[in-house]
Amino acid sequence: MNLWIRGHLLFALLFVSSSALTPEECEPLIKPLSMADPSVLHGRINLLFGYTDNDIFKAILNATHSSWNGTCSGAKTNLTIEGDTARGTGFHILPTCDGCVVFSVNSSANDSKKVLEAFGVENPSDSQELKAHSVYLLARETTVKDSDIERFKKQASCLGFHGEPDWTYSPDKGFCKEDVRPPN
């Protein structure tokens, strides 16, 4: 019996270690792209998948789709580009499919209470300090190929996220109509 358990444990460890990407395999997946041509950020892009390491961000993601309490919403953001980093929080754009954008984002806020009140979300933790690392796949279309999703999951794995995304766009929820614009 003991040998049987050891055999299964060894098999499980080998399987897990063989499915993890090596640093060499991760490097081209997570090396930030040059921001020399920021046009990839222009126009409408739809959030399709997201991972985050913060319970507050998970609560916000799970409370929204493309509308908030039935009202269409969006955002405009001014970013300062410094080398390969877009500053607003700390965005990096990672390699992805044509018509897609993958953001690796580091965010922080000292008083998450104000952020949560703005979104109408209860704080799922006791902390008021918000520090988060998130990875998002956005696209101009409402769907992407399965191979693009798998690549995104590999990128997320290289950045320390595992399993299924914390948030996935649900096509039955729909997106806001194209002519609905976010407030200035």
TrEMBL record:
<keyword id="KW-0732">Signal</keyword>
<dbReference type="GO" id="GO:0005576">
    <property type="term" value="C:extracellular region"/>
</dbReference>
<dbReference type="InterPro" id="IPR012674">
    <property type="entry name" value="Calycin"/>
</dbReference>
<feature type="signal peptide">
    <location>
        <begin position="1"/>
        <end position="20"/>
    </location>
</feature>
<keyword id="KW-0325">Glycoprotein</keyword>
<protein>
    <submittedName>
        <fullName>Uncharacterized protein</fullName>
    </submittedName>
</protein>
<keyword id="KW-0964">Secreted</keyword>
